[in-house]
Design brief:
two-stranded antiparallel sheet; alpha+beta; four-stranded antiparallel beta sheet; single chain
Length: about 80
């Protein structure tokens, strides 16, 4: 099962608010993007103030997918 961008955005937004709570800033869909780095897919939630959180999109057994929070020192520099 290949996730759609909208599904990834919705799941990432839920994960973001679970991690940072109600004090987290609101992501902006226009500033949020899905990108590929070294053959791996990521989603970066952002708003007008800059990046908020980055998640790696990983396939699971059975054709599903899930997100993993990743530390990003600077935009485009994934650990």
């Amino acid at each position: 099962m290949k996730p759609k961008v909208r599904e990834i955005e919705e799941q990432a937004t839920r994960a973001y608010f679970r991690r940072f709570g109600v004090g987290g800033q609101q992501p902006n869909k226009r500033a949020t993007k899905v990108f590929v780095q070294e053959g791996k897919y990521y989603i970066r939630l952002s708003n007008d103030g800059g990046p908020l959180a980055t998640y790696r999109v990983s396939e699971t057994e059975g054709g599903g997918w899930r997100l993993f929070f990743v530390v990003e020192k600077h935009e485009g520099e994934i650990e």
